[in-house]
């Protein structure tokens, strides 16, 4: 192999680093997100993890609000997918904690994942949360939401 074998042909377009990468199963954004999924239902966490990983993102999981607070305190996440109804600390309590500790939520988007967030929307909007992903979760809705965050 010669050096010219490794060279890029001057006529070959080079994709922009932020360009979408197309695969057979999904369209991936070039930006890899670090995502925390907080839900007490195993199958929901598993489903979200698989969808997010298939889209090229890195995922951590926690099973309740207290674990979510601990993970956010220790880590640097781009996105928190947060269930409202969890043991030890509800999603609303986590949102209140995030408002009280903005240094841990800097540049992190929070998305409520719930089948029935309608009644809680006024409180969540007051807490600065306006992104919602309805259950049951559909891959295209998740992909669209992630595209909107880029």
The helix/strand order is HEEEHEHEHEHEH
CATH architecture: 3-Layer(aba) Sandwich
Q: How many domain modules?
A: 1
Largest sheet: 5 strands, parallel
Task: Provide structural commentary.
Helices cover 36% and strands 19% of the residues. The strands form two sheets. Strands 4-3-5-6-7 form a five-stranded parallel beta sheet. Strands 1-2 form a two-stranded antiparallel ribbon. The protein has 150 residues and is α/β, with parallel strands linked by helices. The chain has helices at 3-6, 42-54, 65-74, 91-100, 121-126, 139-149; strands at 21-22, 27-28, 34-38, 58-62, 79-83, 109-114, 131-134. The protein has a single domain, classed as Response regulator (Rossmann fold). Helix 2 links the parallel strand 3 (34-38) and strand 4. Mean pLDDT is 82; it is low at 1-29.
SSE layout and pairings?
Blueprint: H1 3-6, E1 21-22, E2 27-28, E3 34-38, H2 42-54, E4 58-62, H3 65-74, E5 79-83, H4 91-100, E6 109-114, H5 121-126, E7 131-134, H6 139-149
Parallel strand pairs: 3-4, 3-5, 5-6, 6-7
Antiparallel strand pairs: 1-2
Helix pairs in contact: 3-4
Brief descriptors of the model:
single chain, 36% helix, globular, 150 residues, two-stranded antiparallel sheet, alpha/beta, five-stranded parallel sheet, Rossmann fold
Give a brief outline of the structure.
By secondary structure, this protein is α/β, with parallel strands linked by helices. The protein contains 6 helices and 7 strands.
């Amino acid at each position: 192999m010669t050096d010219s074998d490794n060279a890029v042909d001057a006529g070959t377009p080079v994709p922009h680093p932020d360009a979408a990468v197309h695969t057979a199963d999904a369209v991936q954004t070039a930006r890899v997100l670090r995502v925390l999924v907080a839900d007490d239902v195993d199958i929901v966490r598993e489903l979200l993890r698989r969808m997010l990983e298939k889209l090229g993102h890195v995922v951590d999981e926690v099973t309740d609000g207290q674990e979510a607070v601990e993970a956010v305190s220790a880590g640097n996440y781009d996105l928190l997918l947060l269930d409202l109804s969890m043991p030890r600390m509800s999603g609303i309590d986590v949102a209140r904690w995030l408002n009280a500790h903005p240094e841990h939520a800097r540049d992190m988007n929070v998305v409520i994942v719930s089948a029935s967030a309608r009644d809680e929307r006024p409180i969540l909007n007051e807490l600065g949360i306006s992104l919602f992903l309805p259950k049951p979760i559909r891959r295209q809705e998740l992909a669209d939401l992630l595209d909107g965050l880029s």
